[in-house]
Amino acid sequence: MGVVVALKAEARTLGPAVRRRDGLSSLSDGALLAVSGMGGALAAIAARSLVDAGAAALMSFGLAGGLDPRLSAGNVVVPCEVISRDGARFATAEKWREQLRLVIAKVRPVAAGKLLTSLTAIDTVADKATAFRETGAVAVDMESLAIAEVAAARSLPFIAVRVIVDTAADVLPRAVVAASRGGQVNIGRLIGGLAAAPLDLIALIRLMQRYRTATRSLAAVAGARVA
After folding, report:
1. pTM of the complete model
2. Is the per-residue pLDDT at 21 higher than 60?
3. What's the domain count of the chain?
4. CA-to-CA distance for 146 and 165, rounded, in angstroms?
5. Residue 54 burial by Cβ neighbours in a 10 Å radius (0-12, 13-18, 19+)
6. How far is CA 117 from CA 38, 176, 205, in A?
7. Could you tell me the CATH number of the domain that includes residue 59?
8. Exposure class string for 170-201: b at 16+ Cβ within 10 A, else e
9. Domain boundaries, position 132
C-alpha cells in the first residue's frame, strides 16, 4: 500500500519510518509513505511515485476541515466518495473502506459520506456552510481527489482517511491560510501575518487546540490500522 500525506506532522502519527533512496519512506507494516506537501498537484506527483515504486493501492491520510456541523475535531471521516466542485467524483474501494471503518470505530467516531477536495482552503464559516449545502460533502481537504485520479488511471484501489481539525463553526485565521501557500506551513510568514493581524491569535489558539485533538486521533487511527 502507498500512503500520501501532505505534511510531516501527519506522517509522524503513522509511527517510525525508514527513509529510502528514492525519497519515499517505509513504514513498520510494510506500507510506502510519501510526504507530498499541500495541494493536488503535489499530491498527484507523490501518488505516482508510490505507484512507480510498487504500491498496489493508494491511501490519502491526514487532516481535513469539517463541513457537516455535526462533526467535531478528532472525528474520523472514511468517505465513500471523493468529489470536486466541478463535478469530478471517485468512489473509494468499498470492501477496504468498510473493513477499515469497523477497525477505526473501535477507537474513534467515524463518519462516511462524501469528501470534497478544494483547490484552496475554505476558511470562513459562511463558505463552509455554502460548500456543505451545495455539495453535501461532510469534510474538505486539498489532496484526496488528485490521489484518487492517479489510482483510477492505474486501476488501483483507493481510500481516504481524514480527521477533522477545524470544524464547520471554526474560522481559519488569515495568517494561517497565507502561511500555508506553497505546499508547507511557513512559520516566518505565519508570524508576520499574526503581527499584521493580532486578533487572529485568538482563532489560532483555538485552532491549535483542535489540532492537538486531531493529531491524537490520527495517531489512534494509525495504531488501529496497524493492529
Report:
1. 0.87
2. yes
3. 1
4. 21
5. exposed
6. 12, 19, 26
7. 3.40.50.1580
8. bbbbbbbbbbbeebeeeeebbeebbeeeeebe
9. 2-226
pLDDT band of 9, cuts 50, 70, 90 = confident
Q: With 90 as the cut, is the pLDDT of residue 24 above it?
A: yes
Residue for cell digits 485520479? 149
Tens digits of residue pLDDT in 92-103: 999 999 999 999
Site of grid cell 483542535: 210
Residues comprising the chain, all counted: 227
| Cα–Cα distance measured from residue 114 to residue 134, given in angstroms and rounded to the nearest whole number | 12
Q: pLDDT for 104-115, tens place per residue?
A: 999 898 999 999
Q: What is the pLDDT of residue 190?
A: 46
- pLDDT number for residue 209: 85
